[in-house]
Amino acid sequence: MASKVFLHIGLPKTATTYLQTILWGNREALADQGLLLPGEERHDHLWATRIVREDPQFRKANEHRQGAWQRILDDIAAWDGRAVVSHEFFAAASQAQAARVIADLAPAEVHLVVTAREPLGLFTASWQESIKNRDTRSMADYSTVETDDTGGVWNWRTLDVHRVLQRWSPDLPPAQVHVLPLPAQDAPRRTIWDRFAALVGADPDSVDLSQSFPNTSMGVAEAETLRRMNHHLGDFNSAIDRGTYIRTFLADERLVPRQGDRYWPSSDRVEEARERGKSAVAHIAEQGFDVIGDLDTLLVPDQLPERRTPESVTDAEVAEVAVELAARMLHDVRDLRHERRALRHEVERERHRADNPSLRLALVHRWPWLSRLLLRD
User: Under CATH, which number does the domain 4-212+266-304 receive?
Assistant: First the structure.
């Protein structure tokens, strides 16, 4: 049985993707140091959150996905060392669900790891992340309540570190609850990794950080354009559609590079975030949790730079972004067609040069759409 399990539960938008990319990209090297990432693949940790949170929609998932939490537990039970389980959607679990998770991991010594961020920046980034996942709510309508639904990820249920700690910490000694505030923006990007690695007992310099990347934000006009586009995306509903086409292709690769204006919510939402930050800092200090970093970075600064709000974006600005996006995508379509035409010509040359079944299968494996051309005998 693993001696210790570090259960990293987020919060969302607190460098979780950055940390998880490092962990999974260096899985073997970390295992050599006695640190296990349990499960067959990275998705196991995501699927485990849906099992733990009793997501009713996940009951339709196939048997393999529904077995993710048990695979994680089995791997931990068979490991003689330390283990890390990491996904930000654990943060949405109820107190009863959290208690069951901790009990499931026994007799390992469970350490709760919570990466945290000042609530205003977190709120703003969270709204944008929800848009990248096809949400259509304006910032004014976003996260106006803290839902009781454990399936609700993009609201104060998971964004308020005070509320998350209230649900997750009661069954653990304070010394086993670790809060890692994100460092100041001018700190080296790897600072959060260095702190996380030191906590879980990994050598921070022994891993390859080249595959890690910052999760960069869209500007305000770009975010508003994507929000409006989401109303017209038809059946782009699956996780693959949202992740591949909306989040990556449209947002990260086409809209983020425009480097548009940064923004805040309205003044009343700024004050709400400021009060939540004060409440969180007071609670963490009162409970005596282990803080790795500067707790005061969880406070919203008294003075903020002037920024626009999403409500200030005009139809003309949206039209400009949309027109430029359409032009860029037309180039993408042309490049793709040229690439496919060149591949077809290359394949045809190979077909006429030699009847090579193994080559055909290799090409189909790499480009499945070629099957109609290569395997039509």
Answer: 3.40.50.300
